[in-house]
Amino acid sequence: MSAEISGFRRFLHWGPITALSIIKCITLTTLYMNSMWWPPNESFAAFAHQALFLLLSTLATFNYIMATVTGPGLLPKQWQPKDPKDTEWLQYCKQCDGYKAPRSHHCRKCNRCVKKMDHHCPWINHCVGWANHAYFCYFLLFSILGSLHGSVVLSCSFYRGIHRYYYLTHGMAHLASVQFTIGSIVMCILGMGLAIGVVIGLGMLLFIQLKTIVMNQTGIELWIVEKAIYRRYKADTYEPFVYPYDLGWRLNLRQVFNDECQKRGDGFEWPVVKGCDQYTLTREQLAQKEEKRARTRVYKCISPVSGRWMPIFSQGWRICINAPCTDEPRIRLQPDDIIKVTRFRRHWLFGERVPSELVHTAVAQKKRQRKGHIRGWFPRRSVVAITEMPDSDSSDDVKTVKTSTSNGHSHGKQLQRNGLSKKYM
Questions:
Q1: Among 117, 105, 108, 72, which residue's Cα sits nearest to residue 212?
Q2: Which residue has the higher pLDDT, 267 or 53?
Q3: What is the maximum alpha-carbon separation in the chain?
Q4: φ and ψ at 379, to 5 degrees?
Q5: Which of 124, 243, 244, 268 is the most buried (most CB within 10 A)?
Q6: Both ends of the chain: CA-CA distance in Å?
Q7: Bridge partners of 298?
Q8: For helices 219-234 and 182-214, angle between their N-to-C axes, nearest 10 degrees
Q9: How many CA atoms lie within 13 A of 274 on its CB side?
């Protein structure tokens, strides 16, 4: 999904279409059932009751549209800090051809670096970050309140409707106001189920969002801090890691919520606690990346990999039922591809395919034209481990390295040395 998509076109996606359809389904069904259960023309209280529900529905829709249209705030391509010396403490993004500002991360869905990225939300077809975090949280809040209100109305209407015969036969005709047809009872049950589901699902998401906002963390930074604490525990380092952006819960909330519902700052520099600086967290990220590279293992593809999510015909059912439960991409591989692996599971590996540059020109062009991701998951059975990575200092020599297959046999392979070990973070 291109980051440049904007305006009406951003809503032409299954996420926004589904989200808006659910909101309107709950709203229209609730209004229809409420017109029989407690008609707004019956009293001022009934009118105020329906007006409150319409207000909540309108606020939920407004904040949803604002969260989608406003976007999280994208880091300019080829961005660099004002002081060139500061690049030493920043990660470099190959896709955006620039450095990542503090608290910025690259979103593979938007294909851009996002300021203070929390997560990519498919329901708004955009990331949640620095510029739209408040709108997103308000959308969650008003959707929960509106759906809770709607679920009460629909539940009461359903109860009245299924007891209509009892009311008519026991002298309580004034309570037999809800009259069901086949279509209306299906609508009522569907709307009630959707409303309860929204309350539960979005309630959990809002709780997670508020928990991180109170600590002035994003979902990504929460994971970085956990790894920082574990690194120090593993290294027997007694100096605790100080998260630089935790200013206290009041100031943390003001970083996201304020009277104008506007973003604070410029998304490049952030207020930090005493004893920290703008690059405290980025230095920790670089240290974690260095450890990640240290545990990287190199594999070579021995059989084609389709890159499909369920490769049952090429890999078998065992591989499919043990697939990782994540939305991270799968990658296509061809024999002799080299992959740098950083995550390991019994049946799947996660890594980045290394494009080969020292091959015949036609083959190189073909590889460059290969579609799909270069970084993602792939079946473990289609690769073999290489005990040594081809060196980048020489591109003319041929080196024999040992590879091992899953059945324990090893064999020598002739691999071209190439200049592919340039470090990117």
A1: 117
A2: 53
A3: 98
A4: -65, 140
A5: 124
A6: 22
A7: 340, 386
A8: 50
A9: 0
> Which of 343, 344, 366, 341 minimizes the C-alpha distance to 352?
341
Integer CA distances (angstroms), 182 to 76, 189, 250, 252, in order: 55, 11, 52, 51
Buried b (16+ CB within 10 A) or exposed e, 148-182: ebbbebbeebbebbeebeebeeeeeeeebbbebee
C-alpha distances in angstroms, 33 versus 51, 121, 152?
Answer: 15, 32, 11
308: left (phi over 0), alpha (psi -120 to 50) or beta: beta
* Length of the chain counted residue by residue: 425
Tokens of 230: 């574990």
- Give 261-269's long-range contacts (Cβ < 8 A, gap of 24+): 261/134, 261/135, 261/138, 263/73, 263/130, 263/131, 263/134, 267/73, 267/75, 267/101, 267/104, 267/115, 267/116, 267/130, 267/131, 268/101, 268/102, 268/115, 269/102
Over residues 362-405, the pLDDT tens digits come to: 445 554 556 778 889 999 999 999 865 444 443 333 333 444 44
Alpha carbons 185 and 38: distance in angstroms, whole number = 17
Q: What is the pLDDT of residue 262?
A: 60
Catalytic machinery residues: 121
In 3D space, the residue among 200, 13, 209 whose CA is nearest the CA of residue 118 turns out to be 209
Residue 145 binned pLDDT confidence (cut-offs 50, 70, 90): very high
Query: How distant, in Å, are the alpha carbons of 31, 146, 181, 288 from that of 187?
Result: 12, 17, 10, 52
**111: phi > 0 → left, psi -120 to 50 → alpha, else beta; which?**
left
What the block records as the tokens of 157 is 């209407």
Cα separation of 416 and 84, whole Å? 36
Encoded amino acid at 270, one letter = W
Locate tokens 């709780």: which residue?
A: 207
What does the alpha-carbon distance between residue 413 and residue 395 come to, in Å, rounded to a whole number? 17
- Compute CA 27 distance to the chain's CA centroid, rounded to the nearest angstrom: 28
* Nearest CA-CA partner of 283 in 248, 231, 246, 212: 231
